[in-house]
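Worked problem 6 (solution included).
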Amino acid sequence: MRIAIGLDTDGAFERTLARATRLREQGFRAMWSSQIFGPDTLTVLAMLGRELRDVDFGTAVVPVQPRHPSMLAAQARTVQEAIGGSLSLGIGLSHQVVVEGLWGISFDRPASYMHEYVSVLAPMLRGESVAVHGERVSAVAASAVGPKETRTPGLLIAALGPKMLEIAGSMTDGTVLWMTGRKTIASHISPLVREAAMKAGRPEPRVVCSLPIVVSDDVNAARERVNKEYALYATLPSYAAMLEREGASAPADVALVGSRSQVLEALDELALAGVSEFSGVPSGDAGERDAALEVLLEYASTH
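Solution. The predicted structure is:
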């Protein structure tokens, strides 16, 4: 299981670059960042990649509704051309409260929408021409968008339900997860995405898991802070469904929270569950965050 780190790209770019540089110096070679309401993550990653040439970057995730697939493909191919490492383009459907409440875009039949979207995006990322006329997504392009010659970025979907996991396995390189526990990955995520990939004749899919991580001797206090910091996610239907499937009542129940040995054990369990890459999001005070980084690097060096 590869070890990566979650990178906060909010705020001034120089501070983001300083954080990423420190993480690179500590030994991290893969970093994932979310697109929420701050700076445009892909633009930030392009600038970071020009400075950190041996680091792989990924988005976890870019919401698809505000961006036509041809525009996103051109942007991703441009970022891939700009950076020294590899780009993994993680995309997702966001949430109904955001898509309809903030953007005024329909959230109707989200899995169907994603299927049409990927049917355009995936070939465009490979530099291929497309002619797709879907019910909600259409695109015609006779030649490659973005740079004419560049490596194809990886493509992953934030997939939790069966239909989305089928799309992820059969049409993309895999899935990128958030707030999803080890038992759910082992019994639900990993089997479904791998079965879909096998039926489609695709390579073994990537299962990228991102979770909060706190290394602390005061586990109860750490769990309370995690539950407070990530309380919003327990209210969003897709994540609430994954917590329920896990038998979890709160975010701390799926986060990696505990002593050094407990967190190392949890990382082993994620690997056994089928996770191919773990992206830790350190939480807690400065000492706990530093301890989390140390544990992640220790695991990476011994596995």
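Discussion: The mean pLDDT is 96.
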